[in-house]
Amino acid sequence: MSTPPTSKLAVRLVVVGIAVAVGIVAALFVRDWMRRPAGPPLPVISGISGFTLTNHLGRTVVLDDLRGRVTVASVIFTRCPGPCLAMSRKFAEIQEQLPADGSVRLWSFTIDPEFDTPEVLTAYGRKLETDPERWWFVTGPKPEIARLAVKDFKFVVQDKDEADREVPEDLFIHSTYFMVLDTRGRVRAVIEGAEADAVERTLEMIERVKHER
After folding, report:
1. How many CA atoms lie within 13 A of 211 on its CB side?
2. Which of 18, 116, 118, 196 would be 110's cystine partner, CB 3.0–4.6 Å?
3. Does some domain include residue 174?
4. What CATH number is associated with residue 186?
């Protein structure tokens, strides 16, 4: 006795349904597996103490602005004749690959705040096609910037002797690191921004910090 066509169709639909369900479960498993941090948890390198500064939009920024999202920080100055522009271009590459949900933000602290006003920083950022929601340039009183950059972030920043300056704008010796902070405002990874793979390594560290349990 042959099986009615409707029964065959029902069996096929059940088989297809099971296959689809298995595929969805497998895809979710792979997605979650890929999101898991590779290797042991990243160390806590340093914590950040309170501060009050100003971003290029003219907004006051404080420690709480570092919390609740992953942050990548660097130190630059806009009239820098050295590595700053190359570092900022790498930040621009990173920005292009950041999610639009605001879960990650870039911070570029100027170490030349007397020159780098919010207006100057805005013009600098415009040349790099920065998204103001994903990338902030930060200025403020020089002692506050110096304390935060050196004591908390552990950047190297020092004035350059006039006799050692190759050009008049060659004002500072400073780190070219990218610092990755977790959602609690703690430095968790340091990437050498001058290295060829700095963008890829920074994005990798962002993902590791984002998906920590």
Report:
1. 16
2. 116
3. yes
4. 3.40.30.10
Q: Which two tokens stand for residue 77?
A: 């100055």
Measured in whole angstroms, how far is the alpha carbon of residue 131 from the centre of its chain? 13
The model's pLDDT over 159-206, given as tens digits with 9 standing for 90+, comes to 878 888 888 777 788 999 999 999 999 999 999 999 999 999 999 999
Q: How many CB atoms lie within 10 A of CB 29?
A: 10
2 band by pLDDT with thresholds 50, 70 and 90:
low
Q: Kindly state whether residues 102 and 175 are assigned to the same domain.
A: yes
Give the C-alpha separation, 84 to 210, whole Å. Answer: 27
Which residue in this structure is represented by tokens 């190759």? 166
Residue range of the domain that includes 23: 1-35
Q: What number of other Cβ atoms are within 10 A of residue 11's Cβ?
A: 11
pLDDT (tens digit per residue) in 94-145: 999 998 888 999 999 999 999 999 999 999 999 999 998 899 999 999 999 9
Average pLDDT of the segment spanning 32-61: 82
CA dist., res. 73 & res. 157, Å (int): 14
Instruction: Indicate whether 54 and 29 sit together in one domain.
Output: no
68/27 same-domain check:
no
Are residue 27 and residue 125 in the same domain, yes or no? no
